[in-house]
Amino acid sequence: MAKLTQADLVDLNKTFEERTPKELLAWASSVFGTRMAALSSMQRSGSIIAHMLSTMEENIKILFVDTGVLFQESLDTRDRVMKEYGVEIVTLTPEKTMEEQTAELGVLYITPEGQKQCCDLRKSDPLTAAKGDYDALIGSLRRCDGGKRAECPILAVDVEMNCIRINPLVNFDNDDFDQYVKEHDPIMNPLHSQGFTTIGCNRCTTPVLPNEPNRAGRWRHLGPWSIYCGINPTDLDSATSPHIDLPQELIDSILGRGPTDFMI
Ligand code: SF4
Q1: Which of 38, 51, 124, 243 is most buried (most C-beta within 10 Å)?
Q2: Is 218 a pocket residue for ligand 1 (Cβ < 6 Å)?
Q3: DSSP 8-class letter at 205
Q4: Does 263 map to a domain?
Q5: Is 163 a catalytic residue?
Q6: With a 6 A CB cut-off, is 115 part of the ligand 1 pocket?
């Protein structure tokens, strides 16, 4: 195994800024093959990714974390995507039901500290249980969503999962989004047309008013200090220079140094 740091990805990220999402997905598929999956919570950006994957020849799996307290509309959207797009969706679940967790630890999501513990137990831990199965995970973060997402790199090291995170939609703005929906009519979570700009667990998500920021509906009861769950590593503050460990040949391939260079 060899080390790969975020700094190693700087040049590659620069060259990828001009690439389209589909070109980035094609690159990722050529480098990581079946050791790659997409991560989706069946929100609108994830729906775009799911639609793009359904148009590719490669069968790239989608990982879906079911916290046990999701909206029925999100579960129905997952089922529609699976059935109508023919993509494989792997549902990851927490060790305990929300009832078991509450009986043991109380209602966690009503305090900032409890929210972090609850999100760790119900979102991050089920994903971390798949550590080692994938060298790359495709996300759907967009810079135009602002906040910590405003500086999100296309490629990021994910220390928790020891893999690369690929965000092909970072430069996909709202006009790009509207155009894609107009052209392809991808399957969308119906909650988006009911005032939900982003969608998570039913305990911690509300619709937003027209003049509120997109993420105002997440953890509204906790205030602005707790607006990310931590399942996306680029949302976390890190004072260190993180690295992941991957086979040297794979790192060479990612950085375009190997015999399998992929030219877009
Ligand atoms: S969003 Fe709320 S209910 Fe869902 S895992 Fe996080 S704290 Fe728990």
Answers
A1: 38
A2: no
A3: B
A4: no
A5: no
A6: yes
